[in-house]
C-alpha cells in the first residue's frame, strides 16, 4: 500500500516516535480507506452486470424458455453485460500493472507523429459513425521522446475515445502535437499533445476529481457508452510514469481540452 511515511518531512524537533504517530494518523489510515473504497467500488461494478446475467439465466430457464424472440434478445443483452465485465477486468489489470510500474521510468524511444497517426487511424471510423470529424495536426518531421509505446497509445486512445464519446455532440475532435519551449513544471522543454472537443464540457467542480478511479460525471451515460470509469486513472498513472503532465480544461457548454506534456530530452535521449 502506498503511504506517506517515507515522503512526509519529519519536523526537526520530533523524534522517531513522532514519525510513527504521524504515519498512523494520516498516511496509513488514508491509504487504508482508499483501498476499502476501491474494493467496494470494484465489487459494485462487477455485481451490477453479474446480477443482470443471473436474472436473464433464470428467465431463460423459466418463462422465456419457449420464446425464441425473447431468447435471442436476452442473449444479446447477456453478451453485452459479459463484455462489460470483461472490459472492467481488463482495465483493472491494466491499472494494477501501471501502478506497480510507476517507479520504473520507461527507457524506450517513441516516435510520436507515427504513434498519433496510428491512434487516429484506429478511431476514425468510430468517430465518423458518431458524426464526429477527427482532425490531426502534426509538425513536420519526426518527434522522438523517451517512453513506452504501448502505454502512450493507451493514453491517447483513451483521450480521443472520451472526446468522441462525451464531447462528440460538437461534431469535431482535434488532436495536435506541438513543441513547448519551456514547461515550468517539467523544468524544461516538452512535447504537448492536445485532444480537444466542442462538446458539452465539464463543470469545474468535477475537474480535479476526473482522474480518480471510478469517478464519472454522469455514471449512467458512462455505462451506456461502455465506460469503466478507470480510463483517466490509467492515463494519469502512465503520464506520471513518463514524468509528464496532464492538464484538463473545460468550459460547460463549450467543450474540453486534455493536454499531455511529455519531457523533451533532445535527440540524444
Ligand atoms: P469512463 O470509462 O467513464 O469513460 P474515464 O476515466 O475515461 O471513464 O472518464 C471519467 C469521466 O470523465 C467520464 O465518465 C466522463 O464523465 C468524463 N469525461 C472524460 N472525458 C470527457 C470529455 N472529453 N468531455 C466530457 N466529459 C468527459
TrEMBL record:
<dbReference type="GO" id="GO:0005524">
    <property type="term" value="F:ATP binding"/>
</dbReference>
<keyword id="KW-0418">Kinase</keyword>
<keyword id="KW-0597">Phosphoprotein</keyword>
<dbReference type="GO" id="GO:0004721">
    <property type="term" value="F:phosphoprotein phosphatase activity"/>
</dbReference>
<keyword id="KW-0547">Nucleotide-binding</keyword>
<dbReference type="GO" id="GO:0016036">
    <property type="term" value="P:cellular response to phosphate starvation"/>
</dbReference>
<keyword id="KW-0472">Membrane</keyword>
<protein>
    <recommendedName>
        <fullName>histidine kinase</fullName>
        <ecNumber>2.7.13.3</ecNumber>
    </recommendedName>
</protein>
<dbReference type="GO" id="GO:0000155">
    <property type="term" value="F:phosphorelay sensor kinase activity"/>
</dbReference>
<keyword id="KW-0902">Two-component regulatory system</keyword>
<keyword id="KW-0808">Transferase</keyword>
<keyword id="KW-0067">ATP-binding</keyword>
<feature type="domain" description="Histidine kinase">
    <location>
        <begin position="41"/>
        <end position="266"/>
    </location>
</feature>
<keyword id="KW-1003">Cell membrane</keyword>
<dbReference type="GO" id="GO:0005886">
    <property type="term" value="C:plasma membrane"/>
</dbReference>
